[in-house]
Amino acid sequence: MIDKINIFGELITVDCKEILMPYFDANPNRASSQGFSSLCMWPGHHYKIIDNYLCIVGKDWFGQETQGPYMFPPLPIDGIYDVDKLKGLILNIRDQIRDDNEIINIFAVPEVNISIFNQAVEGMASAVEDENNWDYLYNRNDLENLKGRKYAKKRNHLNYFLNNQTYTYQAITPNDIGELIITVDEFLKRKAEQDETDLLVQEECQMIKRILPTYEKFGLFGGLIRIDAKIRAFTMASKHTADTVDVAIEKADPFYRGLYQAINKDFVKSLPSEILYVNREEDMGLKTLRQTKRSYHPCCMFKVYSYRI
User: Fold this and answer.
1) How many CB atoms are closer than 10 A to CB 83?
2) Which of 164, 191, 192, 242 lies most in the core, judged by the most C-beta atoms within 10 Å?
3) pTM
4) Is 255 in a helix, a strand, or coil?
5) Beta 105-110 vs 69-71: how paired, if at all?
6) What CA–CA distance (Å, rounded) separates 97 from 48?
7) CB 108 within 8 A of CB 73
8) For residues 244 and 225, is the Cβ–Cβ distance under 8 A?
9) CA nearest 92: which of 126, 49, 30?
10) What pLDDT tens digit does each residue of the chain (309 aa) get?
11) Which among 209, 177, 205 is positioned nearest to 190, based on CA atoms?
12) At what angle do helices 177-193 and 199-211 cross, to 10 degrees?
């Protein structure tokens, strides 16, 4: 059987940036999953320009219980939706990527666009609140300064680290990539020794190793922490909108109490002044990840919805 996703338009690669970015820039209300870096990092997404809308499809979205073909919200080049055109696009894409009467998902529809999407799919589907894929948005100043009672535990962990470790923080450069790949391998090895066979963690680590050699082409930048000259933590992000960065990767050696707080704080502190918000992406419904992201007290949640057509 032909995989219809693979014959829908063109595969999204790092070489598509000039084509995709005008649509992303015209539609800043996008979930982190519909950003250039994310779409390239997790391979298999295809795109097609239809009637001045950027249409992106994929199959078996990472970390999702619902498998099968899906589409992201089509993005108009001028940022303005037309209900009739949107309805036609959704039906067009559905018929191109599904087999027989297969269900098609529309993922990551921002709350701000729900009204127009409801009109476009009226009689076919209803919006479903997709909390597992809400993005966590933080004020840059909150993460950088950790002020107030609500951050007392974070400050305690950070102060313990600062009082007990000598370390250096630096921006990631191409010269660090070989060592970073070794660091990721060591992280996976420790997970295995702890009998943690989480397939999501393994898949994420393989993705990180794949993109590291050409990370700059993905629009990624980041920082790392060395202790005794050895990399013990690193983080990588991309610019999502004019005032927001999207943190896609963060790894730290759990042996060092306060190290996660240190890499987070130092990286945010290094950001240019025009960056006001930090998007730390979704929690995928994972309990531990949800607790961690909530403990940093987001200023708001970027809510998204899904549809089953």
Assistant:
1) 14
2) 191
3) 0.94
4) coil
5) parallel
6) 12
7) yes
8) no
9) 49
10) 458 898 999 999 999 999 999 999 999 999 999 999 999 998 889 999 999 999 999 987 766 666 789 999 999 999 999 999 999 999 999 999 998 888 999 999 999 999 999 999 999 999 999 999 999 999 999 999 999 999 999 999 999 999 999 999 999 999 999 999 999 999 888 776 666 557 778 888 999 999 999 999 999 999 999 999 999 999 999 999 999 999 999 999 989 999 999 999 999 999 999 999 999 999 999 899 999 999 999 999 999 999 999
11) 205
12) 170
The answer to whether 157 and 261 have CB atoms below 8 angstroms apart is yes
Sheet holding 277-279, edge to edge: 167-171, 220-227, 230-241, 244-252, 277-279, 135-139, 300-302
Cα separation, 44 vs 34, in Å, equals 13
Asked if 52 and 132 count as a contact pair (C-beta separation under 8 A), the reply is no
Strands 75-76 and 46-50: unpaired
Per the listing, tokens 């013990």 go with: 232
Which residues touch 63 (CB under 8 Å, ≥6 apart)? 200, 284
Residue-level length of the chain: 309
DSSP 173: -
Which residues contact residue 139 at a Cβ distance below 8 angstroms, ignoring those fewer than 6 apart? 276, 277, 278, 299
* C-alpha span between 233 and 230 (Å, rounded): 9
End-to-end CA distance of the chain: 22
